[in-house]
Amino acid sequence: MRLVSPSLEYRAAFFALYQDLETNDSINAEYYREGIDDFDAYIQRLADEANGINLRKDYVPCSHFWMVDTKENILGVIRIRHTIDNPFLCFEGGHIGYDVAPSYRALGHGKTMLKLALPIAKSLGISKALITADEKNHASRGVIEANGGEFIDIVMGKVFPYPVARYWVICEADTCS
């Protein structure tokens, strides 16, 4: 498995990811709807975000990656925000957010995806990443903890009105575990 930058060559794989989300996790599917409506513009927006260009209000530069298998299926999506310089990100959003495709959950792919992303975060100047999860999402919390997540606290989200578990994860250039 490897992380790739979103690109037009993954159109069919992205549509399959979206269909999996729409069928099995419709709440998270909405976040990716823009890619279904206009895939080319979506890919351009993600590239622009990574370069800090044309950012939407309250957005920060953010690098997006898709974890693909040897058959080029998208198993998950991970976002690395270059900074957390706004109230939402520094409180409940964090540096890194991710989604594992429903059909590929509970197979260790989240742990692998985060492990692959941490050296990239380090290369972006993030030595310690804030990563958050819904307090009740034990699978996501396990992903963070398996990658060295040090529990900070649980806060009541302001944008997402539920308890959010917050962790610090040290990023290293060569290995993060």
UniProtKB/TrEMBL annotation:
GO MF term (any one): acyltransferase activity, transferring groups other than amino-acyl groups
Domain N-acetyltransferase: 8-174
InterPro entries listed in its UniProt record: Acyl_CoA_acyltransferase, GNAT_dom
Entry keyword set: Plasmid
SUPFAM superfamilies xrefs: Acyl-CoA N-acyltransferases (Nat) (SSF55729)
Protein name as catalogued: N-acetyltransferase domain-containing protein
Species assigned in the record: Vibrio aquimaris
